[in-house]
Design brief:
Blueprint (H helix, E strand, L loop, with lengths): L2 E5 L11 E6 L12 E6 L2 E6 L15 H10 L4 E10 L9 E10 L27 H13 L4 E10 L7 H10 L3 E3 L2 H10 L3 E10 L12 H22 L13
Parallel strand pairs: 1-4, 1-5, 5-9, 6-7, 7-8
Antiparallel strand pairs: 2-3, 3-4, 5-8, 6-9
Helix pairs in contact: 2-5
Length: 257
């Protein structure tokens, strides 16, 4: 049975959209997740909605308990995860307000715990192979649905995740561009890695809010700019999720290997 974990929320816990709701406080061996989890049904599909940065956005990126978040969704028997994130654009063609579906990441974080397996017994080390880290099935479904809804969406982009909470210098922004990154955020790593370790199908909808710091004819990014653009983008992300969720099926997928 499909049960979809939604990380980020984007207003999907609105009682007009979700039925049979429950609020669940859960604890895992890795501690408590970022927020209580809202469970229920959206268009007949069981969902579990978690706020990555806490209710009211109170947890800064490095302090997000990514392991507890993923473990909590596993404990609730979710099968798929759709995550939403704000991002900066490192390419002129990805304009503020556009959506993007990553298929690759670059990890530029420094202080996060990227694995469940450092609690395993000594000598039992997991070396995870993830040449294609995002679920091809889920990402393909998002791409096709975005096209059908006539949403401006960029596919197969590379996201670089930085530590935060500070934003990039111009030099860093240009460096990330030279590495081949198309968008930048503070949340996809290690979330995507942990999701694969937990054998989830996982995909991300990124909302472009700004041009980071590289575009010198544009205002440098600020937190107020990000918050404003996120509110403007939320309706499109919600529309995409509401259309995709009923289409998700259980399929044989390399994510579960």
């Amino acid at each position: 049975m499909v049960r979809v974990g939604i990380i980020g929320g984007t207003g999907l816990d609105d009682p007009r959209l979700i039925s049979e709701t429950k609020k669940i406080n859960i604890r895992t061996r890795y501690g408590k997740p970022s927020s209580e989890i809202t469970t229920g049904k959206i268009r007949g599909v069981e969902v579990a909605i978690l706020a990555r940065h806490g209710k009211g956005h109170t947890i800064w990126p490095t302090l997000v308990n990514f392991r507890a978040n993923i473990a909590a969704l596993k404990k609730l028997k979710c099968t798929h995860i759709l995550a939403t994130t704000a991002c900066g654009s490192l390419r002129a063609k990805i304009k503020p307000g556009d959506l993007a579906i990553p298929n690759q990441f670059i990890d530029f974080t420094k202080h996060r715990n990227p694995t469940f397996h450092n609690l395993r017994r000594e000598g039992d080390v997991l070396h995870l192979s993830i040449p294609d880290p995002f679920c091809g099935y889920l990402s393909g479904l998002l791409k096709r649905t975005a096209t059908r809804l006539d949403l401006k969406c960029h596919n197969d982009v590379t996201v670089v995740t930085i530590e935060g909470p500070r934003l990039s210098t111009r030099a860093e922004s240009h460096m990330f561009r030279s590495w081949g990154a198309d968008i930048i955020n503070m949340s996809t790593v290690p979330e995507v890695i942990l999701a694969r370790e937990a054998k989830f199908c996982y995909s991300v909808i990124a909302m472009s809010t700004d041009y980071d710091s590289w575009k010198e004819d544009d205002d440098p990014v600020t937190w107020d700019m990000i918050k404003t653009r996120m509110k403007e983008n939320a309706a499109n992300v919600k529309k995409l999720l509401l259309e995709v969720i009923p289409e998700i099926e259980e399929v044989d997928c390399e994510c579960c290997e």
